[in-house]
Amino acid sequence: MIIKKILNNGGVVTTNKNGAEIVVLGKGIAFGKKVGDTIPQDKVYKIFSPVSDEQRKVLLQTIHETDPIFFQIAQKIVDRLKKEEGIELADSVYITLTDHLATSVERGKKGLYLSNSFLWEIQNYYPKEYRYGIWALKLLNKQFKLNFPEDEAGFIAVHIISGELGNDISDFKKSVDFIKEITKIVRYYFKINIDYQSLSYNRFVIHLKFFWKYMVYQKDKKSFGDLSSEILEVIKNSDVAAYKCALKIKEYITKTYNYDLSNEEVMYLAIHINKITSETEKKNEIRRDD
């Protein structure tokens, strides 16, 4: 690939084999280079192919105005998620996360730290992403000698979550609201205090996250199987309360999202609900024995 335009030491514009314009990022990829030089392949860590003029404008402006160090930090975060969790994030997260990191550090140097109103939800509904946010926060504090509060880990986690969803950050709030409402139905139906740190609840939340994404973005490609009425009857009779609660959730989802849960989806909800209530009951028995 031949350099067509240099954006900064870490970014250049070139074309792919089809002649379409692409943006290439890499640590020191343009250092000592000029237009017409060959791009060193061993330094390339990300290639963008903007699909619209607006995307191209935002991408070029971000790269031009942002210190390459923030792209490198964003890359470290993304690489670690991919290596340790097998998570592939949408390309957009490289830009949004990089821009966020640069802006946050700029504020931090002035002693301006923002509070995160969704911190509790992020910690409890997205604990895995939050852990990587904490790791990234420590990275920023060490790199720039700052003292970011945990709120910043939450903000970074939101960008990771949005990258997983493959959509913009507003989808994060929608998914959190969905999880919150479903959890509320379970709490009120059984009149229990759910242990948000428990393994059963964590698995329930993971199921809800994937289901929400499927329901909103892939419901027209419905691939879930459907259980026979005989199998469903067995599930219903094994834990009637969990099944009835799942039907309450089905009613809520139908009314709110215009999505009709299949027998299989109701079954999975009932199984998760049963695990949560069983675990809660066991803990209550232990407390009574004490």
Query: So what's the overall shape?
Result: elongated
What is the H level of CATH, i.e. the homologous superfamily of the largest domain? Answer: PRD domain
**How many strand units?**
4
Number of helices: 11
Q: What's the order of the H and E elements? A: EEEEHHHHHHHHHHH
Main sheet makeup: 4 strands, antiparallel
Mean pLDDT: 84
Q: How many structurally independent domains?
A: 3
Strand order of the largest sheet: 1-2-3-4
Structural class: mainly alpha
Named at the architecture level, the CATH assignment of the largest domain is Orthogonal Bundle
What's the CATH topology label of the largest domain? PTS-regulatory domain, PRD
Report on the architecture of this protein.
Keywords: Repeat. InterPro entries: BglG_antiterminators (IPR050661), CAT_RNA-bd_dom (IPR004341), CAT_RNA-bd_dom_sf (IPR036650), PRD (IPR011608), PRD_sf (IPR036634). Residues 65-170, 171-283 form the PRD domain. It comes from Lactobacillus helsingborgensis. GO terms for molecular function: RNA binding. The protein has 290 residues and is mainly alpha-helical. The protein has 3 domains: 5-52, CAT RNA-binding domain (Transcription Regulation, Sacy, Chain A, Roll); 68-168, PRD domain (PTS-regulatory domain, PRD, Orthogonal Bundle); 184-192 and 205-285, Orthogonal Bundle (PTS-regulatory domain, PRD), CATH 1.10.1790.10. Helix content is 63%, strand content 6%. It is built from 11 helices and 4 strands. The chain has helices at 53-65, 68-85, 92-108, 119-125, 127-144, 150-165, 170-190, 199-217, 229-238, 240-257, 263-289, and strands spanning 5-8, 11-15, 21-25, 46-48. A 4-stranded antiparallel β-sheet has the order 1-2-3-4, covered by helices on one side. β1 and β2 (11-15) form a beta hairpin. α2 crosses α3 (92-108), α4 packs across α5 (127-144) and α10 (240-257) crosses α11. It starts with a strand and ends with a helix.
